[in-house]
## 1
Amino acid sequence: MTISIEELAKFCKRRGFVYPSGEIYGSLAGFWDFGHLGTELKNNIKSQWWRFHVQNREDIVGIDGSIITNPKVWEASGHISNFVEFAVLNKKTKEKMKMDAHEVKKIADNKDFEVLGEFNPMFATQVGPIKSDSTIAFLRPETAQLIFTNFKLVQENARLKLPFGIAQIGKAFRNEISPREFIFRNREFEQMEIEYFTAPRQSCPYLDEIKGIKLFLITEKEKKGKLMEVYKAHKKGIIKNPWHAYFLALELSWFLSLGANPEKFRARQHSSDERSHYSSDTWDLEYNFPMGWRELQGFADRSDYDLKQHALFSKKSMEIQDEKHGKVLPHVICEPSLGVERTFLVFLLDAYEDDKKRGNIILHLDPKLAPFKAAIFPLLSKGKQLETAHEIYRELLEEFPVAFDKSGSIGRRYARNDEIGTPYCITIDDQTLKDKTVTLRDRETTKQIRVPHKELLNTLRNLINDKTTFSNFGENL
Ligand code: GAP
């Protein structure tokens, strides 16, 4: 049974993952605060993403741009003139919703809807003390533009050769008409984006890496969709752009490597009237959230739109001198753009289980994502056991976040840690004092083994980094 989004929100508040922002004053729609466990989980998601997409690759580097920048950036990008949304009222349900131009076209003859007006979802603010039109600036609605404006410097500084990518993780802001569905649609959120630059029509040298990866594909023409090998879908012309095929498969494989459920993912091609103002072809990676299939990550082909626009508005050339392609204005052939909060929901939803047999909730989070990697329990909360437990706690803390719990029965302490996704629990008992071993318990199987104190850190390190599994150890205690 899957949990509803409302139940998940309650669970997140109860366990310290996410709170409505400023709740003691009645909160503010579309804004959320992350609690002590939510902050760890969110940071782990971002660092795993950064490791996989930036640090582990030769062709992608990362930047960290500012949230407020010169407003000309948004003139050039088209966000001031084209980033327009419509407020629409459903007269029957009295619900206000946001629609884009193509959705408004679809409901034009439907008497149940009324278009209330059009507006730009960028948040405006004031830079400096004197109010005037020339001091208005905007909170960025996407992280992408700072990659384009810094593009030439980064390419030169990092000596990048085509094809290459520039990645960024950071806050974005949109004054959404109807923020809803917990942290799915917020007014303040974070994005993890890559702008991937190629020479025009440059082929993708990495396609062999995605062989065997399957994804349910819905195309503009084939709305029913079909489970297909992404590599073959490209070879058959179903996914025309090789870089779309590559990144769709790569992103799915990143989610699966951290324990997401493959059956809840599909890819859908945008219809021509649905695409953003800058895009010539767009795919979405969608996830089956409790409220239905929704966009998780966008993959737009932005071609040379942004670099051309910035060259035009700044009157500075955006062309680069590439070893192989000479003087060239690169194309962003694919822009994988992922929301941190939606990713947070995916990992929580796929991890959550209300285990009736065990009698408690279990978060089956991958150890790399889990807020605490282990929890330490002294069987007795006093004397030598407590002292040894503290000693082990301090040793492990040098390497990763660890919880310390000395209250309640051991069963209760296991349950508390299952519920927040702690993968391993360590109990210090009478035997520890005699033979310097501890019990190590696995969240997934509840199997327990005895490990010498001096091997504990290394055993945990290997378990967390997938270098060993619990099934490699001996008998259950
Ligand atoms: N640079 C391209 C871009 O921003 P987008 O489809 O508007 O494209 C990319 O946004 C991703 O950012 C989405 O797939 C989603 O994961 C996330 N996102 C967008 N708006 C959001 C919002 N209001 N709340 C939470 N996440 C959002």
## 2
Amino acid sequence: MGAYEDVFRASVADREGFWLEAAQALEWETPPTRALDDANPPFYRWFPDGRLNVAHNALDRHVAAGRGDQAALIYDSPVTGTQRTYTYARLTDEVATFAGVLRAEGVGVGDRVVIYMPMVPEAVVAMLACARLGAVHSVVFGGFAANELAVRIEDATPKVVVSASCGIEGKRVIEYKPLLDKAIALSSHKPDSQVILQRPQAEAAMGATDVDWAEAVAKATPADPVPVKSTDPLYVLYTSGTTGKPKGVVRDGGGYATALAWSMPHVYDVGPGQTIFTASDVGWVVGHSYIVYAPLLAGATTVLYEGKPVGTPDAGQFWRVCAEHGVRALFTAPTAFRALKKEDPNGEYATQYDLSGLKYLFLAGERLDPETYRWALDLLDIPVIDHWWQTETGWPIVADPAGIELLPIKPGSPTRPLPGWDIQVLDANGRQVPPDTDGAIVAKLPLPPGAFPTLWNDDERFVSSYMSAFPGYYLTGDGGRIDSDGYVFVMGRTDDVINVAGHRLSTGGMEEVLASHPAVAECAVIGVADQMKGQVPRGFVVLKAGADPDPDELRAELVQMVRDRIGAVASLKDVAVVAALPKTRSGKILRKTMRGIADGLDEPVPSTIENVDVLDDLRSVLRKG
Ligand code: COA
Ligand code: AMP
């Protein structure tokens, strides 16, 4: 039996013992005596009697252990020409001071703080400062528009919002403050104050309840870490569901910190003093877990990169960062590699840098297509590790565990489930399917530490969205299969969620925007395959009787509406006017059939279709697109 099998079996044979031992990697104010509270399924709680402070574990603990001079965070920003290294001692001080700022603004245990910031160190400082106070942060990705920010402010009811005057998107400066002001105006909940980091690229106009970051820090008294219950929320991270209303994924402190601390040596093979570069964004779960919390909990060094894989200014930046900062593990989304491949097909930039320290490439966020896998492997000649996870799970579900044993790779599969994950594939009736048969991928409850215990203020939606399709199982929303060697193949979402350039978006949310146009009677948005972004959304609208807008103007208006209300990141560039949408006799839009046609598949026409004639119209629209 291999090392992976041994570890996996140990986690099944004695779940309590396995996770209690993993929890010992942390410093607890009150160490847990029990691993799992399973009294109220499907609401499981990890380490119910433990108390800790996650920021203390990420920072102060390492300073106390004598590692204060080691680099904790390296900020590398080609878009501003800045590089800055924060040692553990400095980061601890800055976090303690900013926690003092938040405390002075009235933030205490359990209060929410919304963070709407670009990829600057202050975003990490703000997150950890919340954790230090036992407050709950909710980071909103900078690419979302005011309306999306407003929805999150409304739901999280923050006491304070922390933001910056601007972000830098390639060569463009994006002013954040007007978006924040608009979001607060739209939301019925008003925060008490906004702490604004002024950046020189665009200074923000300040209002009566705005607080200048630098001024507040200059007069703040540092705050000590506040131990809280393991089960208390550390953060809420909103993610796209099937409707326009995002789901507030709740993360507890103790279970999450335990899972992340376990994952660093076992999955990523990165330990104290070693460097991980996660090229994502703090607005996504990958950023929360592997830019911020996991590297710092492990005493490693994390790189915070403000830039893109290409164009800021060239396709050599990832390799420059890896070489300059001695990166051991690079983690990004396959789409970033497709962008690199397009710009630099022969990988010439990579040959200009010393990449001898780079030991692993980890990819996640969308399916890793075998072609991109092979290109990355040929280029780097190191293990290219596809791993599958979700905002809900907080850490990988299925991965090649580099720090335990590298399992043989089958391109197209992220390999096998990690300890704690009992992954199965079920048919529509909830029966396990034989190997190599497609179905719904589910995880048998309880989920391991780190996975979400519920949705923010919405236990009911937690149960209805995830736990009721197959009682006793978590419905991942992904479809796929498991082969006879236990390898999991994740083929794509079975719901209205799409992955655009590694960004998770809701087609339902885009449909709500299109449907609000006065000329639109009904609409559908589907994700279609895209060579670069994996998927992109395409919209189809049917006009109201009597509406006769100029088609080009209408299309431009609809595209702009989605950009204004959801954000540029939605990438909806293409909306077609069609005579009708294909529907079942009961009136359900046949989105799967539409997707199949768009992707050029030989999609069977369902017998339940009412208006088969519209498919020809649709085929010709899609061919033109
Ligand atoms: N703030 C404001 N706008 C943003 C933004 C942000 N933080 N992030 C993206 N946008 C904008 C982009 O500028 C772009 O605007 P445009 O339509 O005016 O050009 C739009 O949103 C779409 O962005 P994106 O889909 O990211 O496309 P891109 O062409 O700018 O970049 C890649 C393509 C592949 C380079 C980029 O998507 C990438 O690096 N992806 C990696 C994804 C990732 O890290 N995912 C996290 C999971 S690991
Ligand atoms: P997010 O919640 O933004 O992390 O997106 C989660 C979704 O991304 C999953 O449900 C999958 O559809 C997709 N995903 C993430 N990682 C992978 C992967 N390695 N292979 C296939 N799909 C993935």
